[in-house]
Amino acid sequence: MTVNDLLNVEGFSAVVLAEGEREIEGVYIGDLLSWVMGRAKSGDAWITIMSNVNTIAVATLADTACIILAEDVNLDESVKETAEAKGINVISTPLSSYSAALKLYSTLKV
Amino acid sequence: MKELSLNILDISKNSVKAGATLTQILLDETEEKLTLKIIDDGCGMKKEMVESVTDPFTTTRTTRPVGMGIPLLKLAAEMTDGSFTIESRHFEEYPENHGTEVTAIFNKNHIDFTPLGDVTASVTTLIQGSPNADFLFKHTLPNGEVSVDTRELREQLGDVPLDTFEVILWIEEYLKEQYEALNN
Asked: Using a CB-CB distance cutoff of 8 angstroms, which residues of chain B are in contact with residue A35?
């Protein structure tokens, strides 16, 4: 499935859509950025509640397919601009990390 | 990073890479606050570089587009409602007293405070990795102080390199004993 496919699922909306056709190959959940940096895999949808500029940097380093901001966490305008500039997909959901992961599993079998 | 000691190791390595002959790692702890200062006499940074260094998309490394050591330390401090500052004097402008000073202040009682962790391991790893550079480590606690100064060790050791296995082991024990003495 692609990031565009995910956006067709109820509860997921685009904050920054840089590369909609990017394939989502797995899921990683984590909020401690230095921990995620070494563990999230290329192509993962990364679910987190951390939404500062470092989040974008970690997504760049780990080459994740997209960042999913859980629990309606807000993205500052300046961070949004950085995500756009670096070509990072950012998706928002009101769901908790757990519920978002469940939904990814049940509707998209990721 | 799960422990601040890993941040300390990361930032201090930058000092060594900047050609510092002396890197000071100063920890000052009260009941409420932990102040970390890393002061080096390395080549320093120009003004534009200092301004962009907390930006995670800036780095001196060519292997990746972003450098995360400073941004993560800043984030760790700010997550506790603490503060972070960095000052630097570039060698071209300050040929006599160049270097960089990083200060991070943490509120220890904040729920998001990252524990200090094994700072003894960080200091010994640092000395072992750069035996030709000097380090002053000083951890001031409410009930006393733990410190090691490689300049003093060098004087005692003469020609024996600091990364000799027995020397590293001794430094590790020396720091551990000081911490144990404070705990008793």
From this structure: 1-2
